[in-house]
Amino acid sequence: MAGGGALRVSQLDSAELDREMVTVFKTHFSQLFKYFQTSFLGRFDPEVTALIKLIIWKLSLLDCNASLGQQLLGIRYGQTRGKDTGKWMSLNQKIWFAVISIGCPWLRERLSVFMNFSRLSNWEPQTEHILQLIETCLKVASVINFLIFLRRGVHLSITERLLGLRAQFPERQAIRQVSFEFMTRELLWHGFAELLAFILPLINLQRVKNTVLRWMAAKRQNWQSLDTRSPADLTACVVCGEWPVHPHHIGCRHVFCHFCVASNLKADPDYSCPVCGSGILRTVMAPQPVRLTLGHMDLASQANIRSSGSSKSGQH
């Protein structure tokens, strides 16, 4: 015996879960034929869908009086007519449920094939027109039925109304104690996430980072002129640590990749060298290319080889 009608939200969720189950099973089934020709599975799509629905119907409604979605939410189908009100689904109702929800859609998809096979193709336009009228009437009836369901919460679909079925709880439910703590916490975090998503794009994080680095490097600021540059300074960009690409300087001895210094200056006009803390000199005004001679290149290469050799020996 049933314990009372199921909530509207539970019925809607169970119907959505049933549709998702069919989609998931169909997706996994199609993965079995992903290496076949594209049209191989498409030719039998109505049969595949009907077969999946039939298997789900056997494992759910026929065996447990409830669809997969209803089983997840703890509800079942019960009868609402006559002396059997409150009892679970009968075998006839289960069979008719399968005929209406599985057989009719499959027959609609394959109607043209049956018409051609039985040599009734001349009647196909009239039959198609009649079916379109019936489908339109069913859509209108479904909308009306859904409005009635929202009002009374009894029959979610036309099939349930025709068969006299209603989703019910197996046992009588106790009085619900509604707690809004979880909802309040979720709303708070969602609001905080939306606030961050709105504010973070407005903050120049690179400029904030450079400001912090300048403040930390203020005590060790030790500007060194270009005359003190050594060959080792030409072997690595002070930002990325790689070999400088199109090397530039900002007035101190240290060398930057053109992209590294240009991107930092674009994000922060007050950008300064991360090593010595010196900014762009007034005499320079903008990053200047480093003019390298063949002698500079040889010395830089030798310095790079020595540094790499010393690092390898240190590892050994």
Key terms:
12 helices, 4 strands, two-stranded antiparallel sheet, disordered C terminus, two-stranded antiparallel ribbon, 316 residues, mainly alpha
Strand arrangement in the largest pleated sheet: 1-2
Query: Radius of gyration in whole Å, from Cα?
Result: 37 Å
Low-confidence stretches: 309-316
The largest sheet is: 2 strands, antiparallel
> How many E strands?
4
The CA-CA distance between the termini, in Å, is 80 Å
Average pLDDT value? 78
Q: How many DSSP helices?
A: 12
Helix content: 55-70%
Class from secondary-structure proportions: mainly alpha
Shape estimate: elongated
Looking at how many chains there are and whether they match, the oligomeric state comes to: single chain
Fraction in beta strands: under 5%
Sketch the topology as an H/E string, one letter per element. Answer: HHHHEHHHHEHHEHEH
Description:
With 316 residues, the protein is mainly α. 57% of the residues lie in helices and 4% in strands. The chain contains twelve helices and four strands. The chain has helices at residues 8-31, 38-42, 45-64, 68-73, 91-109, 111-117, 124-152, 158-163, 181-199, 205-217, 258-267, 294-315, and strands at residues 76-79, 165-168, 248-249, 288-289. A two-stranded antiparallel sheet has the order 1-2. Helix 3 (45-64) runs antiparallel to helix 5 (91-109).
What is this structure, in a nutshell?
The chain is mostly helical and 316 residues long. It has helices spanning 8-31, 38-42, 45-64, 68-73, 91-109, 111-117, 124-152, 158-163, 181-199, 205-217, 258-267, 294-315; strands spanning 76-79, 165-168, 248-249, 288-289. Helix content is 57%, strand content 4%.
